[in-house]
Structures are given as C-alpha cells and as structure tokens.
Amino acid sequence: MQVLFNVVNQQETSYSLNIRLSDQEIFLNNLRAGDSEAFKSLYKQYAAAIYGIVRRKVTDEHTAELILEKIFIDVFTSIALYDEAKFKIFTWLHQIANRQISLHKF
Question: Would the N or C end of the chain have less CB density within 10 A of its end CB?
Fold first, then answer.
C-alpha cells in the first residue's frame, strides 16, 4: 500500500507544478484583462527607456511626449496580440515605438 501511495503522491506533485504561473504570466494576464494597476506598473517600468528611444530620433520634447503617449495607447489596445514566446516585452515595446516614430510626420 505504501508504494501505491508514493506513486500517486508523486503524480499529484508533478501535476501541481504544471499549473503554477510565474509572476510574469500573472502580470501579462492582468494586462490582457485590462487591469489598470498592471498597466501603471508596465508604464513605470518601461516609459523612461522608451522615451529615451523616442528622444534619440525626435528632438522636440513636446512631440516626443505625444509619441510616447501614442505608444502606450497602442500597447494598451494591442496587449492581447503580444506573444511572450516570440519577444521580450521590451523588444515588443521598442517595435511599437519605432512604428509610432515612423508614422509621425516631422
């Protein structure tokens, strides 16, 4: 009987490991669900770096701020399309930034 219990216990343990989500997965799920706190966290973590990318290509501060706003609006509306298996989130944000910069008429 003890052997059978150990086998069942090991199987239950291996299954429970498969259903745990990482902090990143939880964060992305919250973003996709429209959680405003998750979006604020994303903005706080990445806005300065993305703004730096924009400012290297756009010299006017006001224009750069408008582009940054458009970038994060785009992120908010398209987060469901983000595939973490293809890109790190910063890479995806960088691509959106480049697209918004190229769309802007100087």
Answer: N
